[in-house]
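REVIEWER CHECKLIST
Item 1: Sequence provided? yes
Item 2: Single chain? yes
Item 3: Sequence as submitted:
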Amino acid sequence: MKAAKKAQSTWEDIASLETTQLLNPPQLGHLDAEERREYLRRLFFMDVRLLTFVVTARSLGFGVTCHWNHETSMPHLVWLH
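Item 4: Structure as written out by the authors:
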């Protein structure tokens, strides 16, 4: 018998490593800015193509800079809206 899956917040469900398909940005429109940022963090660590990451970030309202964010171990994201 399978063990019950523990409850996760929305962004954990959306950007978990178990997700086999990336969600389109319109499907992420209900997320607030911090949830979008967390989705992008998880997407970055899923080792997707850089162009996919940049285009997704842009469509979610973020710009990807050439500066490294040491706290998150990924490029610095700038809110564009």
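Item 5: Key structural point noted by reviewer: The radius of gyration is 13 Å.
Item 6: Recommendation: ____
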